[in-house]
Structures are given as structure tokens and as C-alpha cells.
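A quick aside before the break. I want you to see a complete sequence-to-structure record at least once, exactly as it would be stored in a machine-readable document. Don't worry about memorizing anything.
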Amino acid sequence: MVKTLIIMGHNIFVSYKYKDKNVRQIPDITPYTWGRDYVDLLEQLLPDNGQVYCGEKGDDDLSDKSDDYIYNHLKKMIWPTTCTIVLISAGMKKPSSYDKSQWIPWEIYYSMREITTDRGTSHRNGIVGVVVPDKNGSYDFAISQGTCCDSPCRIIHNNWMFNILKKNMFNIRKSNTYRCDNGDTIWRGECSYISLVKWDDFIKDINYYIEKAEEKKDHWENYDLHISVNAY
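That is the input. The structure line, written in C-alpha cells, reads:
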């Protein structure tokens, strides 16, 4: 699902799972909170001059839709944007469905491509993955704290995610890594084109994370980009 926002001079495209109920309850939202409610909350946290454009309002299956249909549906919403926020929630992916039959992979795909409309051509977007806590308030399904080293580190759990997401993590061409005491690889710096941040950290300084994503967009050649919606 999508929503396009304008924040502090940045045009923002938001990709999310509309009906994911495995998210932390937002106060005053009854009887339960959906992924869509986090988009509404994000809108409230943006500056007053933010302008909002709504996209899809459901979770349509795309199995019977052509690539042209999907492209024509998304291009006018993505064209004016420079950064994409992907809300990563525990139930964002239907495990029994192909990636290509779900909206989020296509939204990331077209965010990473040049988009041409009758208004001209726009370049690829910077992308930041914002992890929404699950219904128990935990981020561990995507980000957990490592305890194997003396220095603090994060463990990213991306095996369950869409292919286009996980293949654009840890994909910097010139990596800066070292081995932990237990043999795991520790990555330093901005090692992923699509970096992950916890929702609670993101909303403390939204502009900071958007600007970081846009800096990587401007230096995309430093990353081995995976721009494909796979069938699995």
C-alpha cells in the first residue's frame, strides 16, 4: 500500500501493509490497530506544511494483474518522490504468496527505477525501512540486540522478508567488516542501500533518516543494487 507525503522539501512515498494487525496498539485506536494506522500517525508527526496524497486503500492480490497495470498504477505516485519509507511490520508479507503478487515489492521496485511520465523522468529514490513493533511491542522479528561482542551491535533478521528488501541490505561494494568472537560478520557504516531503523528511533528525527537515505540515493553506484521482483 502507498501514501505520498511532502516533508521539509522532500517528497516521500510510503509503502506499507494496510491490514497487518500484528502491530503494537496505538492509544485511542479501537478495537485494534492496523498497519495503515501507523501511516496516519506518521502524517500527524510530520510538519504542518506536509501535503498528503493517498494511494491504495486495500490489500489487492496482484496475481492476475499485468506489469503494465502495476506500473501505470504506481508511476504517477512515485514520480514526484525522492525517498521511499517502507513500513516493515511482522505480517507485511503473505508467506504463501509470490512476491510479485503483493504490492510492497513492486513499490520498492519502481522506487529504485527511473520513472517516466508525461512530466518527464525522475531518478531512483532513497529508501529507508522503518520497523514497526509487533503486537507485543517487540522489534525482535527484524532487529535484535547482539550479545556476542564487547561492543554494541544489532542483528538484522531479514530471511523472511521480500527478496528485493533483503538483497538490498549488506550490499555495499566496498565493505568494512570484521569477525566477531563467535565468527559472525560485523558490518560497519552505511553498508545497506535499504537500512533498517526502529519506529521509535525514526520518529525522534524523521528528517535525519530521510536525508541519510537520500545521500545514498545520490551515491547509488557504491551499492550492488538488486532491482527485480522475483517470483518467490
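Two observations worth writing down. Residues 2-222 form one domain. The two ends are 19 Å apart (CA to CA). We'll return to this after the break.
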